[in-house]
Amino acid sequence: MLNTERIRLMTRLAAYEQGEGKEYGRIGRYYRHDYVGLQMIKVFFCSTAAFLILLVLSVLYQMEDLERFLYQMDYEKFASGLLTRYILFVVFYQAAAWIVYSLRYRKGSKEQKLYHSRLKKVEKLYEREERQFPGDD
Questions:
Q1: Burial code of 105-119, b = ≥16 C-beta within 10 A, e = fewer?
Q2: Is the residue at 137 inside a domain?
Q3: Domain that includes residue 77, residue range
């Protein structure tokens, strides 16, 4: 005998496993601090690469003024300004990464708990069905 409630739950579980469950399953393997920290390390390297790309593009854009700029430039002031911009750039992206990945971890944890509660419900439905119809396989 088919149990429609159990089939409905199993369909939801299968859809979850095929879709967002893959990402949330990876999140579930970490503690929050470890997951967010790992993502922030990735963001640090990506933001550093992005800053360097923007710097190169800026230099290429101002290539005509570069020769005059190099002769009249105060190198210490330029280096300190560039370092300040780099630090602000990285700090901004680190803060954004912390917020985004903390929220993503929180949502993933809730979804994983819901998934496990549905699994337990399916298991209870199986057990109840086995008690009602002991010889059916």
A1: beebeebbeebeeee
A2: no
A3: 4-27+39-129
33 is a domain residue: no
Cα–Cα distance list, 13 to 8, 27, 87, 100 (Å): 9, 17, 44, 26
User: How many domains are there within the chain?
Assistant: 1
- Within 10 Å of residue 47's Cβ, how many Cβ atoms? 20
Does residue 45 form part of some domain?
yes
pLDDT in tens, 75-118: 898 899 999 999 999 999 999 999 999 999 999 888 888 888 88
Would the pLDDT of 72 be above 60?
Answer: yes
- Alpha carbons within 13 A on the beta-carbon side of 22: 3
Residue 134 lies in a domain: no
| Maximum distance among all Cα pairs of the chain, rounded to whole angstroms | 92
